[in-house]
Design goal:
With 589 residues, the protein is α/β, with parallel strands linked by helices. It contains 15 helices and 17 strands. Helix 3 links the parallel strand 3 and strand 4.
Length: 589
């Protein structure tokens, strides 16, 4: 079993600033921190420092990278919890590391609250592993102790049997009359030989177990089918005490091989029987104790599995949330960069429209005045050039071009605004939000996914109330659903229907329906499982619907699917208008 390692951490990173930051932050939480600047140095320290329970390692390092360190560390100590560090764009490596046994991952630069939470969860899982191992070792020790106790009892019994030299030998004739009664019989039964010789042997056996004249006679004569019989019998001592014996009866023959009597050799097994009863009780108690400990261990294992399952779900949600956060930050930056040049382009086109209008007015005036002048050389040349350059066509077309350009810049401005709204990190909190407006923004963001494949039809009821929700998370759900709907349409033109309705029970109903390929019956029960996907390898992580399901459940809502192969799929989302419960809000904080 591994030693308890609830405060020692190894941090590996080739960036000194990151290394110093992590070391100082973790030491604030009273952790003992060891550091290394590359994978080789880190593995040497991990191999020598047996007390290390959690490792934070960068993925991309010279010499030995984080993935190689993970494999070697897990081979050396399967219980070590490894948290990988990665920058932007390293999600594929992160997913590979998680599949190979990494506990979790952190983005660089690292949020200190997320760092502390992730490290605490890693040590907690480490502790659960240790407790599970302790339970197993305690159970094995208990079984070993009980086995040793049982062996000791058996050895004691064997010692008693081996040390006993007192055997009772009693001989009878064919009528069961005692003819021999040795000293061992005297010692055991309490009779003197002169008291029993010549009398029937039945007097030595209990009446309830023997009928007739006893086993030394009833086994003789014509009834005897073998030379020797061995049985357990109850005998009565002279003082009335009942004892249990192991009786072996052998026939006695004369020189003519004629049966003349029987010899009974017996041994007192009363104590042995008592010991056997005690062993039986010990065995029953041991079996009961083993069952009790086994049930207890099974309960602990079940709780551990539930905890691990919850950790995996949280880990899967963190992966998708980090992807969305990265996309949001990138989108916000791009939107900001586009917005600046877009502003002066829009302003310039507006000014250009005014200038063109003035120039058109002057040119029209020149044309009209020229028409009134006599056709001298200059006027004639001017009209030729006017027709050759197609000024009559250009002037009205310039107005159309400027109008279209203004419309185009306005459309770009709308897209940028929707992109900023979609990616706004300030909305990562519970607020009342307009769901139809959110769907409109998400459609603008996802337009490139469906504009060549499907037409979108919207049906929003009047008076849809604002919903108390985490809008950024719901945007993630809507984006997943719309992109999945577009990707399921293989032969354009397709159709995507989006409906928002208000129910009578203070909930709203959101339907996203496509006429794509649908989902096979065998896959329907698994579509919300983490890492399950029907897409080609490399085309999806299998996390989108799993995370969407968890987000809707966390909002107190429900998500259902209605699908038919070849006809399409409809996802139905129900959300309470008042949003998630208060305790759920506090847990998110």
């Amino acid at each position: 079993m591994p030693k308890s390692k609830n405060s020692h951490i190894l941090v590996i990173d080739d960036e000194q600033n990151t290394l110093d930051f992590l070391q100082e932050a973790l030491q604030l939480e009273d952790y003992t921190v060891f550091t290394a600047t590359d994978g080789l140095e880190g593995f040497e320290k991990f191999r020598k420092q047996e007390e290390v329970g959690v490792v934070l390692t960068d993925l991309l390092m010279p010499g030995m990278n984080g993935m190689e360190f993970l494999a070697k560390a897990k081979a050396l100590d399967p219980y070590v919890e490894v948290i990988v560090l990665t920058g932007m764009g390293g999600h594929e490596n992160v997913i590979e590391a998680l599949k190979k046994g990494a506990f979790d991952y952190l983005m660089k630069p690292t949020n200190i609250d997320e760092l502390f939470l992730t490290v605490r969860r890693a040590f907690e899982r480490r502790r659960l592993y240790e407790e599970n191992q302790a339970y197993q070792e305690n159970l094995e020790k208990l079984v070993a102790d009980r086995t040793a106790e049982l062996t000791e009892t058996k050895n004691f019994l064997q010692t008693v049997l081996d040390s006993s030299e007192d055997y009772s030998l009693i001989a009878t004739d064919l009528d069961g009359t005692i003819t021999l009664f040795n000293r061992g019989s005297e010692k055991f039964l309490g009779y003197g030989a002169d008291e029993v010789i010549g009398k029937e042997s039945v007097l030595l056996f209990t009446p309830e177990s023997e009928k007739g004249k006893g086993p030394l006679r009833d086994l003789g004569g014509k009834k005897l089918k073998a030379e020797t019989y061995e049985r357990e019998k109850r005998v009565k001592r002279k003082d009335g005490e009942l004892r249990t014996i192991n009786l072996s009866v052998t026939t006695l023959r004369d020189e003519k091989n004629k049966i003349v009597g029987h010899l009974g050799i017996s041994k007192d097994i009363t104590e042995e029987k008592k010991l056997q009863e005690e062993i039986k009780k010990y065995t029953e108690n041991l079996e009961g104790l083993v069952r009790e400990r086994t049930d207890e261990l099974a309960t602990q294992n079940e709780e551990l599995q539930k905890t691990l399952h919850k950790l995996h779900e949280t880990q899967d949600q963190l992966i998708q949330s980090e992807k969305l956060a990265s996309l949001g930050q990138l989108s916000a930056g791009i939107a900001h960069e586009i917005n600046n040049p877009l502003g002066f382009i829009h302003s310039n086109i507006s000014s250009l429209r005014k200038y063109v209008k003035r120039l058109s007015s002057i040119l029209e005036f020149v044309r009209q005045e020229s028409a009134n002048l006599p056709e001298n050389g200059f006027n004639s040349e001017l009209m030729k050039r006017w027709k050759k350059e197609k000024i009559d066509f250009i002037l009205p077309d310039l107005e159309n071009l400027l109008d279209e350009s203004m419309d185009g810049t306005q459309r770009v401005r709308t897209i940028v605004q929707d992109l900023k709204s979609f990616s706004n990190v300030n909305r990562a909190q519970i607020t009342y939000s307009n769901i139809p407006a959110s769907l409109e923004s998400t459609l603008n963001i996802a337009r490139n996914e469906f504009k060549y494949k499907a037409e979108v039809f919207k049906e929003f009821d009047e008076g849809i109330p604002e919903v108390r929700c985490n809008l950024q998370q719901l945007n993630q759900v809507f984006l997943n659903m719309i992109v999945n709907a577009a990707q399921s349409i293989e032969k354009p033109p397709g159709r995507i229907d989006i409906r928002v309705k208000k129910n009578d029970d203070e909930t709203i109903r959101i339907e996203i329906e496509d006429n794509g390929t649908g989902i096979k019956k065998k896959d329907r029960k698994k579509i919300f499982d983490p890492f399950f996907t029907t897409k080609d390898v490399g085309s999806g992580t299998g996390l989108g619907l799993s995370i969407s399901y968890r987000i809707i459940k966390d909002h107190g809502g429900n998500i259902e699917v209605d699908t038919y192969v070849g006809r399409g799929t409809k996802f139905i989302i129900t959300l309470p208008v008042d949003g998630p419960k208060i305790e759920e809000d506090e847990s998110e904080k």
